[in-house]
Amino acid sequence: MLLSTLFYISAIVMLASALAVVLSRNAVYSAILLVLTFFSLATMFLLLEAYFLAVLEVLVYAGAIMVLFLFVIMLLNTTREEAMPKLIQLQKAASLFLVVIFIFGILLLIVGGTTELHQAEVISTVGSARALGTALFTDYLLPFEAASLLLLVALIGTVYLAKRKI
Amino acid sequence: MVVPLEHVIILSGILFAIGVLGVLFRRNALVIFMSIEIMLNAVNLALVGFSRYYNSVDGQVFVFLVMTLAAAEVAVGLAIIVALFRNKQTVNVDEINLMKG
Fold it and tell me: Which one of B9, B66, B67 would you mutate to disrupt binding with A, by most A Cβ within 10 Å of its Cβ?
């Protein structure tokens, strides 16, 4: 009971901060609020018993990626950009249409989902670093190696883009 | 599970919709990029929820790979934004219209 309350609280914090990321006028505020989003998401991962991923979420997203974001925001010095420029009429209409369709789909899910997907108490055995590591190095060895190749490509591409005038 | 699976899925859907909203409404390339991160994380949340529901490690492996991909994507994308800013002095995506006929 206490745990589910904690889950809903972090859900509210996450949604509010994600909305604030989107609507904030200042890009630096957006970045800081995005860190808050990631932290509350990590809390939810913890409550869903994905312990290793919760740690990774904080380390990779809130640590590495957000530092990169803040670095670029400071480098470009575009913090005082106006937030809500006037969109073209057609653009605005199309955006609203798409978002409304999306929200409608979610509402349909809420109304239509009659079957309660509440699981009986099963002890989770998959959240630990050991379980994830075993899966990664046996069944998912090829995707794992492909991911390492992807990181290498990204590294080379970033150095290339940053080095010369394009 | 602490909460029913459907709550996790609904939450993930709403978070994804917020990300879509950001991509569609904002003109600042950096904020659009952050919205893409929000969408990726919404998918991660759904995957972790299903992984817990079926007590299977597969979903978590996918989340791991998505995080790797997000890191690579952010590095390359921010490099592209910096290169764009060097040439055009702006990160407003409406002003980057070189290929518009």
Answer: B67
Question: Residue B24: its chain A contacts at CB < 8 A?
Answer: 94-95, 98-99
Tokens for B65, please give them.
Answer: 């790979």
CATH numeric code, A1-81: 1.20.120.1200
Domain limits of chain A? 1-81, 128-166
pLDDT tens digits for range A148-161: 999 999 999 999 88
This prediction's pTM:
0.87
A116: left (phi over 0), alpha (psi -120 to 50) or beta: beta
B5-88 CATH pick, 1.10.287.3510, 3.40.50.300, 3.10.28.20, 3.40.50.280: 1.10.287.3510
| Cα angle A72, B96, A165; round to 5 | 60
Kindly provide the ipTM of the predicted complex, given to two decimals.
0.90
Give the model confidence (pLDDT) of A100-112 as tens digits.
Answer: 887 787 777 777 7
